[in-house]
Amino acid sequence: MMFLIAGALFIISNNSLYVFQDKGADIFCEKYFYWLGNLFSNLKTITGQVVNMKWF
Fold first, then answer.
1. C-alpha to C-alpha distance for 13 and 50, rounded to whole angstroms
2. Chunked in runs of 10, what are the mean pLDDT values of the chain (56 residues)?
3. Residue 31 domain-assigned?
C-alpha cells in the first residue's frame, strides 16, 4: 500500500503536478495508471521466470 502511495507522490513531484486542477488530475491519472500497468506487467514477467526456474 505504501509503495503505491509513494509511486503517486513520485509522479506528482517529478511532473510538478497540481492535482486539484482538471489538467493536472488528468495528467496524473494517465501517468499513474500507465505506471501501475507496467508494474503488474513486470510482476507477471518476474513470476513467470521464477516459476520456470530449476530450483533443485
1. 34
2. 91 91 92 95 95 88
3. yes
Cβ neighbours for 31, distance < 8 A, ≥ 6 positions apart: 11, 15
**Which grid cell is 42?**
513486470
Q: Is 17 in contact with 28 (CB distance < 8 Å)?
A: yes
DSSP output for 1-25: -HHHHHHHHHHHHHTT--TTSHHHH
The verdict on residue 56 lying in a domain is no
Specify the number of domains making up the chain: 1
Provide the domain limits for residue 36. 2-51
Global pTM value: 0.77
